[in-house]
């Protein structure tokens, strides 16, 4: 029979009960029961390693194989938050201005935090789970947004928050802002760094999508010609090998094995899910920082597809950098000039 749980004194709560959104009650109860059994065994068993004690054998058996994402989702459970203290980096904790919270998968924001100054608390959240890949295929982009909200509120329980993210993580910050404002939190601004608006490319006609891809291929070829002119690649690499490869007369050369970056699996899930994400217009304020790298033209909207998704104030700021260079010292200073007064 199950032992009755001792009542806790009035005014006392376990940490998970005080912020229940950050934990799964069934998991917490199982862990509490396992700890209770371990402590009782430690107090009453003969000397010897606990791992060899028969009374504890059931703990490992009960843990079993972790449920799949589909099983978890069927029970209405969110994406798990595991060890958030390992995913949060803080700068300028004693600052008095509105905190800025940025989402990422590889920390790149140090220069921006430095340029914003010591009066701006800056929270950099690494989104992927630190213990390795988990199955997240069954979740929607909105579920990833809810996961981001739980991490944000773990790092900073209450707003106001300035939220931001680079590339697809900007879209994630946008969805997190939608969810935070829906529960009454104050999000004065969402900062998007070279992020394409969800649905902008996906809802183009088939012809426009094909034409857009062709323009991107031509742009990549133009950049290769520039490298040829600078002597960085030879004529063989520029013309002969690509032609022979596309004709099937030359096997693709095996280059050095590229090791997957930590957390790249999480990026893959986000890119897959954002393709189906179709948010309604957001009532808050948004600023888009656009690098020089994205093409311009009819198929490359100047506002990167965001204007139709923002019902509040919207601004675009051009940054003199490439997509992956936005947070180097000079472009980070450009960005900070805009954000610093807020």
Q: Would you give an account of this structure?
A:
The model is unreliable at 8-13 (pLDDT under 50). α7 links the parallel β4 and β5. α7 packs across α10 (264-274). The protein is globular and about 75 Å long. The termini are far apart. Helix content is 39%, strand content 10%. The chain is built from eleven helices and seven strands. With 342 residues, it is of the alpha/beta class. The chain has two domains: 15-64, no CATH class; 84-198 and 262-339, Alpha/Beta hydrolase fold, catalytic domain (Rossmann fold), CATH 3.40.50.1820. The relative contact order is 0.11. The chain has a seven-stranded mixed sheet with strand order 1-3-2-4-5-6-7, with helices on one face. The chain has helices spanning 15-18, 25-44, 57-63, 69-74, 110-116, 141-155, 168-182, 206-229, 235-246, 264-274, 329-339; strands at 88-91, 100-104, 122-126, 162-166, 189-193, 286-290, 314-318.
């Amino acid at each position: 029979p199950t032992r009755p749980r001792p009542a806790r004194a009035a005014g006392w709560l376990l940490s998970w009960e005080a912020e229940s959104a950050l934990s799964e009650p069934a998991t917490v109860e199982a862990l509490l029961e396992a700890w209770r059994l371990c402590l009782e065994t430690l107090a009453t068993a003969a000397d010897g390693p606990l791992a060899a004690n028969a009374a504890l054998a059931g703990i490992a058996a009960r843990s079993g194989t972790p449920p799949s994402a589909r099983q978890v989702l069927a029970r209405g459970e969110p994406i798990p938050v595991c060890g958030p203290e390992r995913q949060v980096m803080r700068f300028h904790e004693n600052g008095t201005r509105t905190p800025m919270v940025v989402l990422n998968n590889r920390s790149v924001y140090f220069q921006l935090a430095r340029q914003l100054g010591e009066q701006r608390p800056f929270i950099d959240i690494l989104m992927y789970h630190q213990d390795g890949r988990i199955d997240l295929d069954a979740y929607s982009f909105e579920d990833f947004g809810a996961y981001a909200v739980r991490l944000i509120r773990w790092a900073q329980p209450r707003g106001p928050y300035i939220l931001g993210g680079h590339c697809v993580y900007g879209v994630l910050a946008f969805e997190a802002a939608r969810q935070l404002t829906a529960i009454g939190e104050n999000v004065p601004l969402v900062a998007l760094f070279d992020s394409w608006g969800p649905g902008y490319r996906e809802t183009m006609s088939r012809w426009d999508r094909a034409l857009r891809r062709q323009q991107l291929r031509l742009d990549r070829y133009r950049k290769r010609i520039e490298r040829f002119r600078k002597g960085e690649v030879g004529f063989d690499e520029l013309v002969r090998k690509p032609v022979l490869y596309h004709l099937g007369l030359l096997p693709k050369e095996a280059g050095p094995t590229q090791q997957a970056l930590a957390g790249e699996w999480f990026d893959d899930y986000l890119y897959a899910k954002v393709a189906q994400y179709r948010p309604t217009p957001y009532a808050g304020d948004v600023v888009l920082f656009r690098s020089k790298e994205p093409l311009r033209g009819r198929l490359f909207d100047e506002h990167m597809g965001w204007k139709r998704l923002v019902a509040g104030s919207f601004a675009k700021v051009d940054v003199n950098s490439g997509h992956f260079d936005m947070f180097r010292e000079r472009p980070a200073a450009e960005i900070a000039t805009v954000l610093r007064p807020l």
